[in-house]
Structure formats: structure tokens, C-alpha cells
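Fold this: Homoserine O-acetyltransferase
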Amino acid sequence: MSADDQRFGLQRHVILPGPLPLDGGGRLAPVEIAYETYGTLAPDGGNAVLICHALTMDQHVAGANPRTGKPGWWTQMVGPGRPVDTDRFFVVCANVLGSCMGSSGPATVDPATGAPFGMSFPVITIRDMVRGQAMLLDYLGIGRLKAVIGGSMGGMQALSWPATFPDRVEAVVVIASAARHSAQNIAFHEVGRQAVMADPNWRGGEYYGHSTPAAGLAVARMAAHITYLSEAGLTEKFGRKLQAREAKTFGFDADFQVESYLRYQGIAFVDRFDANSYLYITRAMDYFDLAEEHGGLLANAFRQTKARFALISFDTDWLYPTRESRAIVQALNAAGAPVSFVELSSPYGHDAFLLDSPEMNRVVAGFMGTGL
């Protein structure tokens, strides 16, 4: 593999026959998975690392995104000489089931009808996403992962991996995540879903070939984006600064800079994401409850695995506050699993895990044995 391949990754797409049994009782067949790989797989397959992405991210973790032209969303974490060093590890990142970046989701074509699934696509859970990733790894000839790493929703998948496949994971890194959603998390997601479904263009999810519910999806993104930030970060960046009067956006003028920023985030999101996928994935996150999946006791989820764990939280993350990570650490301790934990200081709220954080990089590099 050339240096350019390692830096930008190889974009791949596979259609697996399945069927993939789903938690909801149905089956998905065939199973489409879009993914990207970096580095070279060792002859024994023992250097594979799976990166799990967050709600609105994709498989382009370190390679240029062909749709936006922007660099991958975690280039500071994955690459040659990075904490997840692609000179040492073979890195795989797959677009989750239910998404819209090439994997099976509401926008893909239902073989039975020849039309997009829309809202007839089966309900997907976090564990279903993990099973789909396992199916991909089987296809790639990877029986065991050196590590699985994820932040936010990616952290939920990372937690689900050793619980679902206890013998297939050596190490787990969970950043800014939780073992289940709080009522507040669910409430914010429901506001976003209702914004999408209230858009006249949503058409009950049958908008493919018509105008998309852009306004509703933009509002959903704006509401969600507020939860990714912190009050201190917003105050530092925007305060109560007013817009220049010539600056115009849709609807009422954006008098404050923070208004303009949120509107931009909403509009940009509509250009790259599918509204139905947003409904499905947010619902999967809300359904996730790792303790409930294992008899109501979180420690039970980890009793069968020999994996070692590292958890990272941020002190200004009010979406997944540090107490959520501490609850996971306590469950791991109860299960006798080796775990390290650190709370990092950052003014950037939940989004801190996506930004260049030297402290986070050092923690992950040390855990992965790569050094910096």
C-alpha cells in the first residue's frame, strides 16, 4: 500500500448476502456496508483496529470526504504517527447501518419494491450496527480486533462490542459516551425528530424524488448542535456579539452571531445527510441500554470479556457528563475488567472529542502503545 493510500484511505463498498438478524425481530438482506481502510493488515490479521463513528459522522475517519472535500473527521487521531498509528495498525471504519453514506438505510433501494425503503426500513439498534460491523470483519478475514475505539455514539458501539462478541476484542476505548441515554438526551432527540416530521416535505418519509424536508432537518441539527457545545465555549466564541447588518440568512435576519452560526450548521448538514436516517439513528441511540440487554445489571455486560478498557470524559460535556463514564467504570470494576479512566478539561463541551486535544491524544497513544 502506498503512502498516499495510507494517508487518504481506501474507500470501499460491499454487498453481503446476509441475512442479518435484527433486535427488532426482522432480518436484513442483502446488507450493504460502505467502509474505509487505512494501513496494511498483518498476515495473521492481528493488527486490526475498528473505529466507530458518531451520529452524523461517516466512514471517512481520516481520508478526504468525497462529498464535502473536507479532511476526515478524526485526522488528529488516525494516521501515520498518530495515536492510532496506521504504520502499525490496519484501521477499519464502517458507515453504520441506517445511515446514508453507502450502508443499508432508509434511502437505499428495497429489492422487493425497487424503490427506496423510506420508513419501511427495519428499526435498527446499536447492537444491530455492531453485528453488521462483525459481518464486515468476517468478510475481511478479521477474526479478532486489536482494539475498538469510538466517541459519542461510536462509544456506545465500542461498549457493545465486548458485550456482544466478548472473544473478538482485545482493547476498548470509549470517549465522551454513555451506557444509555438520559431522559434529557431522549427529549432533545425527540425535538429534532418532531422538527423533521413537521416539515411538509417529509411526506411520511416518502420524499425521495421530491423536495427534501430541509427546513425540518436544519432545525433538528441546530437543536442537537447546541448540546454538543458548552456555555463557556459559546460565550467565549460569540457572547452577545451582533451580526453585521448586511449579513442575511433565511427567515428573520440573524441579529446575533450565534444565530448565524447555528443556521449555517443546519444548512450545511442538510447538504450531506438524509432526514430519515437522522430519525432512525437517533432512535437507535435512545433505545440503547446496555444494562437492560444484560439482565438489568451493567456489570453483566462485561463479565465474559478479557478486554482492557480506557474511558475518557470531558468536564464541560453536559450531553454525556463525567458521571456517565464513572458509572461504566464502576460496572467494569464490578466485572473484574481492567480499566483506566481520565476526565479531561476542555471549554468545548461534547465536541471536544472531535477536536485536536493533545491530552486526549496522549491518553489514547499510551493506551495503544504507540507513544507520541
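The CA atoms of residues 194 and 212 lie 15 Å apart. The domain at 3-180+288-368 is CATH 3.40.50.1820 (Rossmann fold).
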